[in-house]
């Protein structure tokens, strides 16, 4: 059986700088898979390539049975692959509700869109309370919630989250991690990039450690969480 997402020997370069040096991994439907690793390891580059924003040098990406190489970014969203990017990238002058509506820009099913906006408000009640407010007035954590809510508005088969806990207080981070668990329980498949390795591994089915463009270690979330080299390098233990 083919996995929902299959990445084979992916290489991505910025000019002469090779940021991703031949990585392979898969994401099965219903799973949470995490990519962890230090700054500059190539995690964001990997997600941007899967989204169609960067062209790989070589490698094959298969999503839901279709080859993604050469497919444009809009088409990839329409196929069911959504990306909540690093640094959030919400539209600060638009209201929260307008930001959510933009996440559904490819859909024509107005009633279902309204239902999904309600669902985003159930997931993140603060967004509902502030629905008419300019998104730029939200706190960092709230903007992260909005970015996740907006990505969900495309009804993705696979949701890619790039460092959702970045810059958040421990309480906000817990809230985001709890929401990722809820989304998984509702059947959403998630590819999670995180600097916070311990939080990511504790909820992931599988994880991959990236180091300077390569996957250096793979395992179940629990295996990696208890791996001595991972504990030393990424969980701050000695
Ligand atoms: P971080 O957690 O810091 O975001 P990352 O694992 O996501 O790290 P990437 O952002 O994918 O890493 O970066 C991988 C490598 O590619 C780094 O060496 C980075 O400097 C380089 N890089 C990223 N974006 C560009 C760019 N637009 N032009 C040139 N080099 C880039």
TrEMBL record:
- The record places domain ABC transporter at 5-237
Q: Which CDD domains match?
A: ABC_TM1139_LivF_branched
Which Gene3D superfamilies does this UniProt record tie to the protein? P-loop containing nucleotide triphosphate hydrolases
TM regions (residue ranges): none
Which GO molecular-function terms appear in the entry?
ATP binding
Q: Which InterPro entries match?
A: AAA+_ATPase (IPR003593), ABC_branched_ATPase_LivF/BraG (IPR030660), ABC_transporter-like_ATP-bd (IPR003439), ABC_transporter-like_CS (IPR017871), BCAA_Transport_ATP-bd_LivF (IPR052156), P-loop_NTPase (IPR027417)
The UniProt keyword set, sorted, is: Amino-acid transport, ATP-binding, Nucleotide-binding, Transport
Regarding protein family, the annotation reads:
Belongs to the ABC transporter superfamily.
Q: Supply the name of the protein.
A: ABC transporter ATP-binding protein
């Amino acid at each position: 059986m083919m996995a929902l997402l299959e990445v084979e020997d992916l290489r991505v370069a910025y000019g002469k700088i090779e940021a991703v040096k031949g990585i392979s991994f898969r994401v099965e439907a219903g799973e949470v898979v995490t990519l962890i690793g230090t700054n500059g390891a190539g995690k964001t580059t990997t997600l941007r390539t899967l989204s169609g924003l960067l062209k790989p040098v070589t490698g094959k990406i298969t999503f839901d049975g279709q080859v993604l190489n050469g497919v444009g970014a809009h088409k990839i969203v329409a196929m069911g692959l959504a990306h909540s990017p690093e640094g959030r990238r919400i539209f600060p002058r638009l209201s929260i509700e307008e930001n959510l509506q933009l996440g559904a820009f490819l859909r024509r099913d107005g009633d279902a869109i309204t239902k999904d906006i309600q669902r985003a408000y159930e997931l993140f009640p603060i967004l509902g309370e502030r629905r008419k407010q300019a998104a730029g007035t939200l706190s960092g954590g709230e903007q992260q919630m909005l970015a996740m809510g907006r990505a969900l508005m495309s009804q993705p088969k696979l949701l890619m989250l790039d460092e959702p806990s970045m810059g958040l207080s421990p309480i906000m981070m817990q809230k985001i991690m709890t929401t990722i668990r809820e989304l998984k329980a509702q059947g959403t498949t998630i590819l999670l990039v995180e600097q916070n390795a311990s939080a990511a591994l504790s909820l992931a089915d599988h994880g991959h450690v990236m180091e300077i463009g390569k996957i250096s270690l793979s395992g179940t979330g629990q295996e990696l969480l208890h791996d001595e080299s991972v504990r030393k390098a990424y969980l701050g233990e000695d």
